[in-house]
Amino acid sequence: MIELSIDLDILDTQKHLHKVQKQVVNKAITRSLNRTLDQVRVVAARTIAKDMGMRVGAVKKRLKKIRARRGKFEAVIRPHHWTPNLIEFGARQLKKKGVSHKAWGKRSKTRGAFIGRGRTSGKRLVYSRTSDKRYPIKALYGPTLKNTFVKRRILKVMEQVAHGRWSRNFDADFKYYLSRVA
Q1: Which residues of 11-21 are buried (b: 16+ CB within 10 A; e: fewer)?
Q2: E strands of 8-151, at which residues?
Q3: Closest Cα partner for 58 from 70, 50, 68, 69?
Q4: pLDDT for 16-35, tens place per residue?
Q5: How far is residue 113's CA from residue 176's CA, in Å, rounded to a whole number?
Q6: Is the pLDDT of residue 9 over 70?
Q7: Rounded Cα–Cα distance for residues 93 and 5 (Å)
Q8: Contact present, 102 and 61 (Cβ < 8 Å)
Q9: Helix crossing, 19-52 with 152-181: angle to 10°?
Q10: What is the pLDDT of the chain when averaged over all its residues?
Q11: DSSP state string for 12-47
């Protein structure tokens, strides 16, 4: 399974804390992990959308987040297996045969392709003929979300954001929960 996971080993720290402090630390860890997860998801969606040549909202909708809970200090971003049709990449019909699209981050042409309606869904899709005859036709797809998610450059950006934001989020959340106890 392809995912980005943020987990910590804090058992040594918790051994030296009193009961009230443990509760404060547990709440602060859970909340700051979830806040960090949200921040990493935003950066991941922006980076992936730029790399794929798509809208950020379409990518963000398909990045599933599994939030940290009390007792389970792990937050996960998991990409949905999704291969979008070329219409999702701003496809336009050209006057001469073909379709122009912005898949893989740069505008290019696919000769012999055309835009039509899906038989069952009724959505606009990009198709290409498989022979000289009218039928059969096949839908044309762009890059997959999973393959883009696992690129080294994108994983590196997500890890940098996670490590940079985690300490700030934890400090703020720890102070917040400590002030509520006192």
Answers
A1: eeeeeeeeeee
A2: 63-66, 74-79, 92-93, 99-101, 108-110, 113-117, 124-129, 137-139
A3: 50
A4: 567 677 788 889 999 999 99
A5: 57
A6: no
A7: 41
A8: no
A9: 150
A10: 88
A11: HHHHTS-HHHHHHHHHHHHHHHHHHHHHHHHHHHHH
